[in-house]
User: Fold this.
Amino acid sequence: MEIIRAHILGFCSGVRRAVKSADSVLGGHSGKTGNVYSLGPLIHNPLVLDGFEKRGLKVLSQSDIDVLGAGDTVLIRAHGVSPELEEKIRDRGADVVNATCPLVTHSQKRVADFASDGFTIIFAGDRNHGEVIGIEGYARAAAAEKNLPHSFFLVKDEVELRALFDSGKVGASEKIVLLCQTTFSIPIFEKIVSALAEKAPSAQIVNSICPATHERQDALEKMCGEVDAVVVIGGKNSANTNRLLKAASQRCSYAVLVESAEEFSAGMVEKLCTFKKIGLTAGASTPDDVIDDVERFLQTI
Assistant:
């Protein structure tokens, strides 16, 4: 069996930055009072989270903000948060370490600018995803500051985009801009763009998909032409990892997702042994050592 890695896989720069921020805060917190929290899971990888939990990092939900006090530190994860939520944290007296991915920060600022200019914002993204919730919060705050209506519509595909216009919620004559979640599916976004061009030809398009997402999806597509099956490594609750799995499943006869080498079942191993070339890719929240462990395991079967 030959193992072939995608030429780009694993941690993106935004996730690596968030992990380094957490490592630095925890390393400098020894002997200090108060707790260190991440607002929601720092990244979508349970192995990384378990390691930080053992070092004292606690996960804080939005509903538990009231437990914060002076001496506590809150890490804003790579997905970012709304300005309203960040203000609530600071009002509790806690210190804030902002580990928002710079590309997400850029999207937050762009959305706020468009909202301030009275645009109707259509946003392609996953409902309830932390990045999307935070970005909508920036649009809401910017519109409120100018006493403008909050015109922000979330769509997951071209069907929902068309429905906005067909239902009359959005009109073709409005000032419209389309943006997207940084980890959104490239093919689905392209379909949304095409549908919007039909419904509102004058709408502005801002492709805010992270280059790392492009790179990983492109690397996977290229690798799939060289292998018989694909192993995707990453958190099962990671949006970008699941998109890699979906893309691999469409391009290869067999694709499987594991969070670690320990997750390979006997059935998975038996199936993989029927292939000569196995491709390896990993989501943007997957650390290098986990990828190495999986590759070593595959080399033994």
Q: What stands out?
A: The first strand starts at residue 2 and ends at 5.
